[in-house]
Amino acid sequence: MTQSNDLGPEDRKIITLARSARARNGVPEGAAVRDETGRTYVAGTVALDSLKLSALQTAVAMAVASGAKSLEAAAVVSEAASASGEDRAAVRDLGGPATPVLLAGPDGELKASVTAG
């Protein structure tokens, strides 16, 4: 497992952005993804009567809708102990199986780093 202090500045940045989205929107999860050009996409959980998406699924969808061709990394800030299979699949669809998915707690501390694969 990667420790928080082992992360590069760009990975720390997407964790911070994900944490901010969670806090700002008062949602259970915040997420951020970084595409192949370094652009970031930030989202929170979507919980409408007709549409339910995790924060990470929403961030990936935003990247796709903005023309991203691939992902370099993803981050989720949540109380959950792990990234769901659906979340990892969304990252894998755009980024490939080796794309890192960083899971941090609400305090921004890294809990786990897994691949999308």
Number of helices: 3
What are the segments in which pLDDT stays under 50 over at least 5 consecutive residues? none
- CATH topology value: Cytidine Deaminase, domain 2
Strand element count: 7
Query: What is the helix/strand order?
Result: HEEEEHEHEE
Write the CATH architecture name.
3-Layer(aba) Sandwich
Helix content: 25-40%
- Secondary-structure-based class equals alpha+beta
Between the first and last Cα atoms, what is the distance in angstroms? 16 Å
Q: What is the class in the CATH system?
A: Alpha Beta
Q: What Rg do the Cα atoms give?
A: 12 Å
Any idea how many domains?
1
List the helices and strands and how they pair.
Elements: H1 9-25, E1 30-35, E2 40-44, E3 46-47, E4 52-53, H2 55-65, E5 71-77, H3 85-95, E6 100-104, E7 110-115
Parallel strand pairs: 5-6
Antiparallel strand pairs: 1-2, 1-5, 3-4, 6-7
What does this structure look like?
By secondary structure, this protein is an alpha+beta fold. The protein has one domain: 3-Layer(aba) Sandwich (Cytidine Deaminase, domain 2), CATH 3.40.140. 33% of the residues lie in helices and 28% in strands. It has 3 helices and 7 strands. The chain has a 5-stranded mixed β-sheet. A two-stranded antiparallel ribbon has the order 3-4. 45% of the residues are buried.
Characteristic key phrases:
117 residues; alpha+beta; Cytidine Deaminase, domain 2; 28% strand
